[in-house]
Structures are given as structure tokens and as C-alpha cells.
């Protein structure tokens, strides 16, 4: 079995980013490439022990510099206080929060891993963590984490495209504005053009024999 997958299976799937990578899969990748395997504080001693055995490398202790642990918990929103700012949605790694701008938001317990990432961004402090034995979210969290990343990348691409569209539109407007401001006097230009045609005809006339000049005058009347 691929090493990354076996390492990943040992991680607690909270997707909290405490290990200094965006989520559990990225930490598994980093470990497989030689990164130290004691940064998952939520996984605690149990995860460390399993990784020690799996990798045949012994690290004594979890590195507590990577933040506090995460309990078995889920987040809930105090509906009366929520102002619908969407900041929690942006912070959630598994898209467990639903709601629209200016409307009350809600958390889907089966998706919420209790990672705590939505707590700090909430400007009105209306998200609370409560004890939960529901481990459903951890079983599916990698799937929802990947899906959330994919959707956000698409949004980023779309925003970039919108931005470049506006940029090009501005350049177009600027060029058009310059053309409008060229200050061309159309009447004057037509006179110049007519004068040049006459000059040209006169040159041709002078280059012809006397006989042909009569025909030329007839044809250019
Ligand atoms: S649970 Fe958090 S700290 Fe542990 S591997 Fe996953 S993202 Fe990293
Ligand atoms: S709702 Fe909050 S605690 Fe739950 S997964 Fe999303 S960010 Fe983490
Ligand atoms: S961050 Fe807080 S106030 Fe804003 S939508 Fe989320 S729960 Fe509501």
C-alpha cells in the first residue's frame, strides 16, 4: 500500500491545519517525504505511537508547539446573534457551514470535525463548541476537504478570469477614448484626399500623348 495512504489512515482527519499543513493528507505527504511525524497534536500519543511503529522511527513526544489539542466536539451557531457575514464559511475546511450573506448561518453536525477554525473569524463571537461523540464527520472529512479545495480553486480561477476580463475591458476603453480624442477634422481630411486624387489625375494627364489626353478627359469627367 502506498506509504502516504497508510500514514494518512493514522491521522485523526480533523483537517485543522495545526501541523502547519493545510490538512491531514498534506501532512501525510510531508511525513512520507521525511518531515517529522510528531506535529499532529489532536492525534496525541496514540497517533504518535502508531506512526513510530509504521515508520520505524521513534519520537518520544508530540511537539506541543503545534497548538492545543482538539476535543470530540462540534460547533454550533447562536442563531439570534449571527449577522450573516459568511466569515465562518470561508474559514471552514470541510464546508460544514451553510448560509447566505446577511442571513443566519447553520452548521451541519455530520460534517463538522470540531477543528475550531471558524471560532476566531466570527466578529460577533456567536459560535460555540459543544461536546459530541459523532465521529461521522471524521470518516468523510478528507472527501469534503478535497471538494471544498476544488470549489474554492474554481472560484479563484473565476475571480482571476473576471479580473483579467475587467483589465482588458479597461484597456479597450482607454484605447477607444484615445481614438475619440484624436481630434481628426473629417471635412479637412476629405478635402486633402480629393486634392490628392486631382493631383494624381493631373500627373497622369501630363504623361499622356495629345490624342490620349482627349480620351482621358472624357473618362474622368
Ligand atoms: S488532524 Fe490537524 S494536526 Fe492532525 S494531521 Fe490533520 S490537519 Fe494536521
Ligand atoms: S464548522 Fe467550524 S469547527 Fe466545524 S469543521 Fe467547520 S470550521 Fe471546523
Ligand atoms: S462568522 Fe459568525 S456572524 Fe458571521 S456568518 Fe458565521 S456565525 Fe454568523
CATH fold naming of the domain at 3-66: 3-methyladenine DNA Glycosylase II, Chain A, domain 3
Shape: elongated
Strand content: 5-15%
Q: How many β-strands, per DSSP?
A: 4
- How many strands, which pairing sense, and closed or not: the largest β-sheet? 2 strands, antiparallel
- Treating each run of at least 4 consecutive H or I residues as one helix, how many helices? 7
Q: How helix-rich are the residues, as a percent range? A: 40-55%
Separation of the first and last Cα atoms: 93 Å
Ligand list: iron/sulfur cluster
CATH superfamily of the domain at 3-66: Electron transport complex subunit B, putative Fe-S cluster
Q: Name the helix and strand elements from N-terminus to C-terminus, one letter apiece.
A: HHHEHEEEHHH
**Structure class:** mainly alpha
Low-confidence regions? none
| CATH class category label of the domain at 3-66 | Mainly Alpha
Strand order of the largest sheet: 1-4
Return the average pLDDT rounded to an integer: 88
Amino acid at each position: 500500500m502506498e506509504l502516504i495512504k497508510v500514514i494518512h489512515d493514522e491521522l485523526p482527519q480533523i483537517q485543522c491545519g495545526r501541523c502547519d499543513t493545510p490538512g491531514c493528507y498534506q501532512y501525510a505527504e510531508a511525513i512520507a517525504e521525511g518531515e517529522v511525524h510528531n506535529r499532529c497534536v489532536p492525534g496525541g500519543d496514540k497517533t504518535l505511537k502508531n506512526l513510530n511503529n509504521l515508520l520505524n522511527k521513534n519520537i518520544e513526544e508530540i511537539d506541543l508547539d503545534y497548538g492545543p489539542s482538539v476535543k470530540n466536539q462540534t460547533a454550533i451557531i447562536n442563531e439570534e446573534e449571527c449577522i450573516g457575514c459568511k466569515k465562518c464559511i470561508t474559514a471552514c475546511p470541510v464546508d460544514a457551514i451553510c448560509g447566505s450573506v446577511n442571513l443566519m448561518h447553520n452548521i451541519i453536525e455530520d460534517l463538522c470535525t470540531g477543528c475550531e477554525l471558524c471560532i476566531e473569524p466570527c466578529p460577533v463571537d456567536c459560535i460555540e463548541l459543544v461536546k459530541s461523540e459523532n465521529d461521522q464527520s471524521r470518516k468523510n472529512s478528507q472527501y469534503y476537504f478535497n471538494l471544498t479545495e476544488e470549489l474554492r480553486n474554481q472560484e479563484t480561477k473565476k475571480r482571476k478570469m473576471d479580473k483579467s476580463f475587467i483589465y482588458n475591458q479597461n484597456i479597450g476603453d482607454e484605447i477607444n477614448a484615445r481614438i475619440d480624442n484624436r481630434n481628426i477634422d473629417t471635412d479637412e481630411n476629405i478635402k486633402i484626399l480629393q486634392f490628392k486624387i486631382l493631383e494624381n489625375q493631373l500627373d497622369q494627364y501630363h504623361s499622356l500623348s495629345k490624342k490620349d489626353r482627349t480620351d482621358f478627359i472624357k473618362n474622368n469627367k
